[in-house]
Write a structure and sequence with these properties.
The protein has helices at 11-27, 38-59, 102-112, 115-135, 149-154, 157-168, 181-186, 190-201, 217-222, 232-235, 242-257, 270-278, and strands at residues 63-72, 78-87, 142-147, 175-180, 204-210, 227-230, 261-265, 283-285, 293-294. With 295 residues, it is α/β, with parallel strands linked by helices.
Length: 295
């Protein structure tokens, strides 16, 4: 809603400002109304600037991959790496241009459909790098790549993945696909068929951010998944928080009962690693071992 005369002196200005108010209503979860304020224009302008910057980034190859190791708790060896996308500051750009983290740009790219182009680039770059490491005699285990729920909904993932593995020459057993628990549940009954097709390609499958969604255990036992990743929100207060300790213990026991390996994310303290080792957690990932680093 925008009102004359305080929100605009002519029809085009009133409509533009009503549009900004509508965008704010959608941002808050729809089914609501908002009266226009100047702050909404700033939000809409910032969003437009971010979309423009991200489209440029896709067109000009301004993304890069960093890798964070996953460590076997029993042996201390690196057994896998997670590929994490970062947005580079454009060459020759204004030094005051703010850096944008994946938590900001991934949702925008999902909403605008740019995530498909980014997802393809990430997969190709991770597989290319993995093959280069193997050719150099470096053994890293598996590279884990996150798959966005919107990529799954848009389709074509299996075909893209088959082509990229073929083009780069990376053996499929060195690739791990991570999909969030909530993203998996969004896929509904088609999730099982989709995961089965991925499994048949020979890649490993991992459920990311486990514990934050609403998994159907009946589904989980049928999914061809080899690994669960416990979300960092459950790890950060261990071993001091009794409730979190109990939840983590239950998740590890359940995963092992379903013949799945377990990775704990966000491990930053030695006490957390010791606690997880006592519970028989298989792998850990976090700043205690390494931040994400360039190839």
């Amino acid at each position: 809603i925008s009102l004359y005369p305080q929100d605009g002196q002519d029809a085009s200005e009133l409509i533009r400002n009503a549009d900004a108010a509508m965008y704010e209503s959608k941002r808050r979860g729809r089914n609501s109304l908002n009266f226009y304020t100047e702050a909404f224009t700033a939000v809409a302008t910032n969003r437009l600037q971010m979309e423009t910057r991200l489209r440029r980034a896709v067109e000009h190859d301004e993304f890069t991959l960093h890798y964070q190791p996953m460590v076997n708790l029993a042996t201390g060896q690196i057994v896998a790496l997670e590929a994490l996308v970062r947005l580079k500051t454009p060459a020759g750009s204004d030094a005051t241009l703010p850096s944008i983290g994946p938590g900001e740009f991934i949702p925008v790219m999902e909403e605008t459909g740019m995530i498909v182009a980014l997802g393809e680039w990430v997969l190709h770059e991770a597989c290319r790098q993995g093959k280069a490491w193997l050719d150099a005699g470096l053994h890293f285990g598996r590279i884990a790549v996150n798959l966005s729920p919107s990529e799954v909904r848009r389709g074509g993932v299996i075909e893209r993945l088959s082509r990229i593995l073929r083009d780069t020459g990376l053996p499929p057993e060195h690739l791990e696909i991570e999909i969030t628990e909530s993203g998996l549940m969004e896929s509904g009954t088609s999730a099982e068929q989709f995961l089965l097709m991925l499994y048949q390609l020979g890649v490993s499958l991992s459920i990311d951010d486990f514990g934050t969604g609403y998994s159907s255990l009946a589904y989980l036992k049928r999914f061809p998944v080899h690994q669960l990743k416990i979300d960092r929100s459950f790890i950060q207060d261990t071993p001091g928080n009794v409730s979190d300790c109990q939840l983590v213990s239950t998740m590890i026991s359940m995963a092992h009962g379903l013949h799945m390996a377990v990775v704990a994310e966000g491990v930053e303290l030695t006490e957390q690693a010791d606690f997880l080792a006592e519970l028989g957690c298989d792998m850990v990932q976090g700043y205690l071992y390494s931040r994400s680093v360039p190839a």
